[in-house]
Amino acid sequence: MAKKDTGRQVIASNKKARHDYHIVDTYEAGLALMGTEVKSLRMGRASLVDGFCQFTNGELWLENVYIPEYLAGSWTNHAARRRRKLLLHRTEMDKIEQKTRESGFTIVPLSLYFVDGKRVKVEIAVARGKKEYDKRQALREKQDNREAQRAMRYKNLG
């Protein structure tokens, strides 16, 4: 049999997190989901915008991530914003917990995706919040780079 494509099939991404935070470390974690949640994700319906992660009793939980109810679901449907357990190795969880004990660090979800078309994974990041002037400076640098690329393109064409 031929090997399947091992790429990611991205369901949702949190672009605002990359704008609002300095990303320090990233980790890939599994999610403990119900069947109707997986079916809803297969339809491409999810939002990570207000999501965050938090430790409770030594376990890492994904909170406030919106996965809408499955349309064809019955009374067994899930709650749309329920807490979901993240599945990580203990050593990774210890590193993350140690980092978040330092002031100013938080854990935010960056993207939600399928791996090998089967398993749902979430990319989480240990991050520090940006100040307002950092955000403006990043936007200014991005715009300057874009203008420089545009100028180089016109110079090469003409």
From TrEMBL:
InterPro entries: SmpB (IPR023620), SsrA-bd_prot (IPR000037), SsrA-bd_prot_CS (IPR020081). Keywords: Cytoplasm, RNA-binding. The keyword Magnesium does not apply. Residues 136-158 are annotated as: Disordered. It comes from the Bacteria. CDD domains: SmpB. GO terms for cellular component: cytosol. Residues 136-150 have a biased composition (Basic and acidic residues). One of its GO terms (biological process) is trans-translation-dependent protein tagging. Gene3D superfamilies: 2.40.280.10. It is found in: Cytoplasm. GO terms for molecular function: RNA binding. Belongs to the SmpB family. Required for rescue of stalled ribosomes mediated by trans-translation. Binds to transfer-messenger RNA (tmRNA), required for stable association of tmRNA with ribosomes. tmRNA and SmpB together mimic tRNA shape, replacing the anticodon stem-loop with SmpB. tmRNA is encoded by the ssrA gene; the 2 termini fold to resemble tRNA(Ala) and it encodes a 'tag peptide', a short internal open reading frame. During trans-translation Ala-aminoacylated tmRNA acts like a tRNA, entering the A-site of stalled ribosomes, displacing the stalled mRNA. This is SsrA-binding protein. It comes from Kocuria dechangensis. The gene is smpB.
